[in-house]
Amino acid sequence: MLTVAVLAxxxxxxxxxxxxxxxxxxxxxKLRRQLQGMRRVKIAELPESxxxxxxxxxxxLEATPMVxxxxxxxxxxxxxxxxxxxxxxxxxxxxxxxxxxxxxIQDSTGRAVIEPDEARLDIAFDFVDHCWSNPTQREHAxxxxxxxxxxxxxxxxxxxxxxxxxxxxxxxxxxxxGVREADPLAPPVESYRGxxxxxxxFSSSPEAELVLSAAKETILDVAATRGPExxxxxxxx
Length: 237
Prior knowledge:
By secondary structure, this protein is α+β, with helices and mostly antiparallel strands. The chain has one domain. The protein is 18% helix and 33% strand. It has an 8-stranded mixed beta sheet, with helices on one face. A 4-stranded antiparallel beta sheet has the order 5-4-10-9. A hairpin with a 2-residue loop joins strand 4 and strand 5. The longest helix is centred in the first third of the chain and has 24 residues, at 2-25. The protein is elongated, with a radius of gyration of 22 Å. The N and C termini lie far apart (50 Å).
């Protein structure tokens, strides 16, 4: 019986340690739990200047050009690129860049502008490349532009390049406080006395941090986001 009890305690300790290890390997685990605990509200129903959570599909913002991801040349609204060098069994960050511009999210009820510059982003690194003394032309050019002092490491160490983007027609979850403004692309109101159609604009502030996630576990109530211009997600039935 004692042996069984010891083994049971050991199993609990091991499983608990594995859980904590997984959370350490997922820096956004806490952020995702926070989003999962929030009630989703449709864009048109979000109160102005109050923190709320909504879901929408990404769309271009008028007169705002898309950017090109440095490592893959993919057109996108925003990207994060990290370069890490292997030190023993771990990776050490040696270069990093976040860049992009505002874009729209849309559901069946309305549109909102997202300004991601100061936001907390939870987007997957869907391009990863390991190299040893043989970086691609794009990888070499990126480090030379962003962190030229470490460019020699590319030819002497094991280096990992990672890139994440926010692209067109992606379903994302947003947590923040928005301010209403007139929507220039909304259909004209029927009466000259009618109220103009409004949209929200989200940005980070000391009072309300903007959080943006594309993780599947934070995308709830997907059906509510489908509008006349929205496409169902690829894994939808």
